[in-house]
Amino acid sequence: MTHRPSCFSPSRRRLLPILCATTAFSLAATLTPAVAAPMPIAATQEQTAVNRTCYDTSVPGTVEEQRLDNASPGGQPVPPQILERSGFDDDVERFTRILCALPGYRPALAVVRAQGDALWTTAIRRAQRTQQTPDLPSTDDRGLYWARISMAKALRQWQPRKPLQAAERAELIRTLEYASRGITSTRFDHGVRRVLVTGFDPFTLDADIRIGNPSGANALSLDGTRWRVNGETVQIQTVVFPVRYTDFDEGMVEHALAPHYRPGPQRAELVMTVSQGRVGLFDLEVFNGRRRSVVSIGDNNNLWGGGTVAAPVVAPGMPPGPEWLTSSLPMTEMAATAVPPFRTRVNTSVLEIPAGQTTPVRRPDGPTPGSIASEGAGGGYLSNEVAYRNTLQRDLLHPAMPAGHLHVPVLQFGAGNTSEITDPSYEANRDAIVAGSHAILRTALTTLP
């Protein structure tokens, strides 16, 4: 790897003032004078070798982190290609270098938060600016994902001079996760209408390590943007959630969304969760079920939700609530939005276990009274669960809020591409999904009172 100046990447013409400022501030504020001395712009081979001694590579990463070396059929390892072609290899290298200069937990906490914020900021700026070939296009969400995974693995293997307690290491990784997902930076400005949109990481990576998630790409394209709708300024803030049951069990969705349902200047006026769903369809999911039931797929750590369609389970730590919740988005208007080459529908179908029975029944028009939720309109996986958790926060904190879930079409590679990390069909497919998502959201916003 060629080491570039830590704050400026001339080959990509990307200036990162926030990264430089936060890193410099954190180092100056938290390190001893000897450690806080200016770092060289380019590390020598000897310095790089020394830096690597602060990592114990025998410490295994999570299942998700172990995929960093995975290759496509007949191809080279995919994550390094994505990192290099998106420019996030610089961010990962910088993070691992800075970490080795830190003596322990307390100074690291501020630096990790700053680096996580900077990674999110870099991803947003990249997503909203045209990229030059051979870089991956701006709407590609995969670079942020693999950069975060790389940094989390570095934190897991980091061995500072002052040894870390398990809880301290876990807090550092949590801090990185929250900051680099936009959760700590969803701050709305004064004098604007406020909208919160979410997305997800890539998933099913064991089936194809190359894939991205268009809901994540959509979130990156929207964060911080301002639209003029009905003569008023609308500001959009976004977050991207992991495809991991553990994070949901620990309340990440509530931590991200609840502040924007509570009274005050950060209360949103519309909250829409978004995930990837079915081929060729934008689905507006009407009924959200309380339980997990998927058995065909694990999460990104290959953990399973624990339920089946005949015996669905409530997630650990799920706040109290009813079996079913309903979207309050303006679905009729949203479904009428033109989103070529796809179509949009209002989806009311659910799978329920009727009251007093034990066998699941498909109900095309929604649940019947007293039934148990086997699958919401969005299924029995984390897409349905994020929709339920979102609308539960609405009902608990601000019942009049328009809130609901949008499933975007599946992102697909071009026919015959089994090894390349991108192709023209893949790029056109993602761009069309993002454009359609924008159009559907704009339609929803025109209905705000």
TrEMBL record:
Keywords: Signal
Annotated region (Disordered), positions in chain: 357-378
Keyword Thylakoid included in the entry's annotation: no
Signal peptide: 1-36
The protein's name: Pyrrolidone-carboxylate peptidase
Species whose genome carries this gene: Kribbella deserti
